[in-house]
Specification:
Elements: E1 5-16, H1 55-67, E2 71-72, E3 75-76, E4 79-82, E5 92-95, E6 102-111, E7 114-127, E8 131-135, E9 140-144, E10 151-157, H2 164-181, E11 193-203, E12 213-216, H3 221-240, E13 248-253, E14 258-264, E15 274-275, E16 282-283, H4 286-294, H5 300-310, H6 315-322, H7 325-338, H8 341-358, H9 370-381, H10 387-400, H11 404-411, H12 419-432, H13 434-441, H14 447-458, H15 465-475
Parallel strand pairs: 12-13
Antiparallel strand pairs: 1-10, 1-11, 2-6, 3-16, 4-5, 4-15, 6-7, 7-10, 8-9, 11-12, 13-14
Helix pairs in contact: 2-3, 5-6, 6-8, 7-8, 7-9, 9-10, 12-14, 12-15, 13-14, 14-15
Length: 476
């Protein structure tokens, strides 16, 4: 009889915080930049240099902890995790093992299987390592320390997830929460959110966990889902063959859709942790926690309830708009200016989503101002421009944030509402297309559509379509 297996999954999610400077020095945290230009003696681990903690890092960590229902450790400190690796300049990493800043939280996720709370074991602060660049051509590895010392929080879940769907829902919930807080942009492709996945399998009904492996190098939701499926199958195959799963760290190769062993998994004692001697403990007062709590934004779930009451836009639209805080901000600001939530929603849902998809952009990358979108809606509503022209103007707003009034004036795009001029053009079109006219008189309603098209073409798309229809019917 075939056995049934259950997958048990826990995640360690690293999030780069959106501070302007690094965790223990004043170097820039900006992504990109020539290699080794955002560095100083502290973040390159020079002897005698001393770390100074960035207060903003603590506030962001607390904000994420509060938003994920954790309790804040009011007396917490840093520890030194010792390991030797070329991208780790001090030969140790400043992290938190014994007293992490946040503990015992959880977030609610929803999948096709229903709602579920995923526990958060802890959230701790630490510094990022540098980045090794492997040059296949020269057969050397070179190191860039720009990322070294960039502040991270590591969010460690409980092993509460049972499928790839639950993992993706959990990651999306974390990403959305952290983006709403402004604590990180959480771009997986730039490495500002990275997930290591711990997976084990066991027979359904078994009390004991199986041996787990850790999967690294996962930088997209698709890769994470594939890695989980792949690793589940690999472990079941080993068990069925009577072999045992080895506790190790594995690296996922997204192109090959397979993983390979990197190293056997170390335990905490292998890192010789001890309290960081160069940093004083952090004492967090009740007042400070309250202050951070007061600054928490309105989160997505709260926005959805308010949008329903306040704006009367479809549930589906509200879900898409609030998925990105930046898009929600644009929606609210534009609506405030023009007072037409349905119209604003339509522009965001149709044209904005189309252009984002075509350019493979994220909603966070939107650069246009609410003022210009509101003006475009007003021009369209007033009949100053027709819908075809409006789409053309919107593309300019999307790419270059142009002032629509000015653009319409300069390019001469105003709708022609002059009946005399339209009548003359339409008379000419009727004279030029006797066949369509005959078709229309023989009961072919569609023929008028062709004549409308020809008129719009002659008027360079600037005629008022309602007026064109009316005059055509009258003349025919």
């Amino acid at each position: 009889m075939a056995k049934n297996y259950e997958t048990v999954i826990g995640l360690e999610v690293h999030v780069e915080l959106a501070t302007k400077t690094k965790i223990f020095c004043s170097c820039s945290t900006e992504f990109g930049g020539a290699p080794n230009t955002h560095t100083c003696p502290v973040c390159t681990g020079m002897p005698g240099s001393l770390p100074v903690l960035n207060k903003q890092v603590v506030e962001y960590a607390m904000a994420v902890g509060l938003a994920t229902n954790c309790s804040i450790t009011q007396y917490c400190k840093f520890d030194r995790k010792n390991y030797f690796y070329p991208d780790n300049p001090q030969n140790y990493q400043i992290s938190q093992l014994y007293l992490p800043i946040c503990r015992n939280g959880g977030v609610e996720i929803e999948t096709a299987a229903g709602k579920k709370v995923i526990g958060i074991h802890e959230i701790h602060m630490e510094e990022d390592a540098g980045k090794l660049v492997h040059d296949e051509w020269e057969d050397v590895s070179i190191v860039d320390y720009n990322r070294s010392g960039v502040p991270l929080i590591e969010i460690v879940s409980e092993p509460d997830m049972r499928s790839a769907d639950e993992v993706i829902a959990y990651l999306e919930k974390l990403r959305e929460t952290i983006q709403y807080l402004g604590a990180s942009d959480c771009k997986l492709n730039e490495g500002s959110m990275r997930a290591d996945v711990n997976i084990s399998v066991r027979e359904v009904g078994a009390r004991k966990f199986g041996t787990r492996t850790e999967m690294k190098n996962l930088n997209s939701f698709k890769a994470i889902a594939h890695a989980i499926e792949g690793e589940r199958e690999r472990q079941i195959e080993l068990i069925e063959m009577g072999r045992s799963v080895v506790q190790e760290t594995r690296r996922w190769d997204d192109n090959k859709e397979s993983s390979h062993a990197m190293r056997s998994k170390e335990d905490a004692q292998d890192y010789r942790y001890f309290p960081e001697p160069d940093l004083v403990p952090i004492v967090i007062s009740d007042e400070w926690i309250e202050e951070v709590r007061k600054k928490q934004p309105e989160f997505r779930s709260e926005k959805l309830i308010r949008y329903k009451k306040e704006y009367d836009i479809p549930e589906y639209d509200a879900q898409i708009i609030t998925a990105s805080k930046h898009m929600a901000d644009i929606f609210e600001a534009t609506t405030e200016l023009c007072g037409k939530p349905k119209k604003v929603s339509n522009w965001l849902m149709v044209e904005t989503m189309r252009l984002l998809k075509e350019n493979e952009m994220d909603a966070q990358d939107l650069k246009f101002s609410p003022k210009n979108l509101a003006e475009l809606i007003e021009l369209t509503e007033a009949g100053t421009i027709n819908s075809t022209v409006a789409k053309e103007v919107f593309e300019e707003i999307f790419y270059h944030d142009v002032d629509p009034k000015q653009y319409v004036e300069e390019k001469g795009l105003k709708t022609v509402n002059d009946e005399g001029a339209l009548r003359t053009t339409i008379e000419q079109i009727i004279a030029d297309n006797p066949q369509s006219v005959a078709d229309y008189h023989n009961g072919k309603e569609k023929a008028i559509g062709y004549l409308v098209g020809q008129t719009m073409k002659a008027m360079k798309g600037k005629a008022n379509p309602a007026m064109v229809n009316q005059i055509l019917k009258e003349l025919l």
